[in-house]
Amino acid sequence: MIRAALAALLGLLSMTTAEAGCRQALALGLDISGSVDATEYRLQRDGLADALSRPAVRNALFSTPGEVVWIAVFEWADPGQSHVIQPWAALTDGAALDRVTARLRGGTRPDFGPSTALGSAMEAGAALLAGRPDCATLTLDVSGDGPSNTGPRPRDARRAPALAGVTVNGLVVAPDAKAASQLESYFRAEVISGPGAFVERADGFEGYADAMERKLIRELRSMLLGALQ
């Protein structure tokens, strides 16, 4: 009995990428509208790379052998404007994660318009997640430093069939407590939806990496607990 159990465990740990299941598909949308300057743009992209590289996030990503997290990252601004920075990648090990963070730290900003189309961003994220129907959990993260001011309303976008079964979380970026409180309330009322949805707050773009780390750990751990239960 013990030998059989050990053999089964070793078989699980030695699963190839092709055999591994998808625990979670995580699509992250970054706001690059006109309110985000060149310095803030780099703080956002580098902050995401930094958060993904931190030990607590890495541990959460690789906590379940044979159950892989897939990640995709896109930027958004005006209605219909989205740019995929990182196509879907399976985070099977540290080397795969390092390739993603290197890609985030490179690249240049696309020539997008100045407005903030949160609803369109959610539609772009939904289209990305449609490419991962084999994953146990689908999560869309939308970062933003202001409310939507053009395009489809976020509350309408989140009701679309394309986001059925998707958890939509938000990361708000604000310079002070008052602005953060207002933007958090807006995201709760208009943007987030699905099981366990929540809003995380970054204290300006300087605090983006720390906020992203908190958000990723919360998402990844909640999915792990759900799988164990």
From TrEMBL:
UniProt xrefs under InterPro entries: DUF1194, vWFA_dom_sf
Keyword Glycosyltransferase: no
Superkingdom of origin: Bacteria
SUPFAM superfamilies reported in the protein's UniProt record: vWA-like
Keywords: Signal
Presence of keyword DNA-binding: no
Extent of the signal sequence: 1-20
Pfam families: DUF1194
Name this polypeptide is given: VWFA domain-containing protein
